Structure prediction request, 422 residues.
Amino acid sequence: MESKPKGKLAGFFHFPQGDGLSTDEFIKGLWRENPVLVQVLGMCPTLAVTNSAINAMAMGLATLFVLVMSNILVSSLRNVIPKQVRIATYILIIATFVTVADYVIQAISLDVHKALGAFIPLIVVNCIILGRAEAFASKNGVWASFMDGLGMGVGFTFALLLLGFIREILGSGSLFGISLFADSFQDWVIMILPSGGFFALAGWLLLFNGLKLRKKQAQPEQTREEVLI
Amino acid sequence: MKTESLWFIFLNASLINNFVLAYFLGICPFLGVSGKLSTAFRMGMAVIFVMLISSMAAYGIHAFLIWVDAPFLQLISYIVVIASTVQLVEMFIKRFSPSLFKALGIFLPLITTNCAILGLALFQTNKGYNFIESFVFALGAGIGFTLALVLMAGLREKLDFAEVPVIAKGVALTLLVGGILSLTFMGFAGLGG
Prediction:
């Protein structure tokens, strides 16, 4: 957290002295406060579009774009927006950028746009974006908010890719559409079905919980058994 | 163009393509409010109400936006309508049932960011439903949401007394149960024909 700006526009283009602070904002979103794996936010797109790696990637990048842009705008307007209507204003800002992202994806790849369907407009109601606008961008400078949005966005994309990889490899036997196994591989159809999303995410959470427990308890043997369960 | 009967639309929205378990819409309240059966049921009722109103409003807005030829405003106007409907419901509940208002807490205003409601408005537009069909679709989706929420809450109330490995406590367990519930709902897939 940087110090509160004194004047109306003081701190608008405030760059921290050392690069340590903004790097920390970036790393925080990537790992320690990862929006999906630690905070368990933004579940709808996380589970719905990760049935293949390419869809996960497109969704992650679109969210990254909206997150960074809305963080920048919210943070630069933070002294202008009246407190009472701030949430409504944030939602409008986010909806605007989502509309932009929607049209851009449609222009780049119609296939991906079709595969993601209604889930691109649904980025508007992704709790991560509104959460970052309210919890971070409305209180911090433009540069820090940019780094925060970037970190959270990359962390979100990372988590989506983790799920997309595992679900596509097991469910279709391929990665980014390239077949990985010989024909003898039996696809785990369940992984690309909706319930596969629940199971894959639960699996990753179990793994990370196990790692965390192991660090805390310093009883590696016992916890490793629990990981296997 | 009566390609789908109303009954089929209802069945489809509530069971076969259940919003929570097949489309992953509204997962946040599904994980957040499903701790207690009574709260889950009331939350479901509030969501049904918001869904019905915002679905009808979305139908009107869509027609208007087509008329003025500004489809790019669709998303923005939908979200504004939903936010105001939620505000309305909030005032209504606060007036008539303060205890429910307290029980729902932060999740009441969060209905605004419930993907199920915005998703409903978008789906009905994409599918080109007329007014009656939209209404039935919204009713089915709301009941399906409530059903999933209540089932989950019932399971979780029982799970409170079960011995669970430390590692699986919390969200991971809820997700596993959700996965199994989603598997069972796939059994309805044959109903539509």
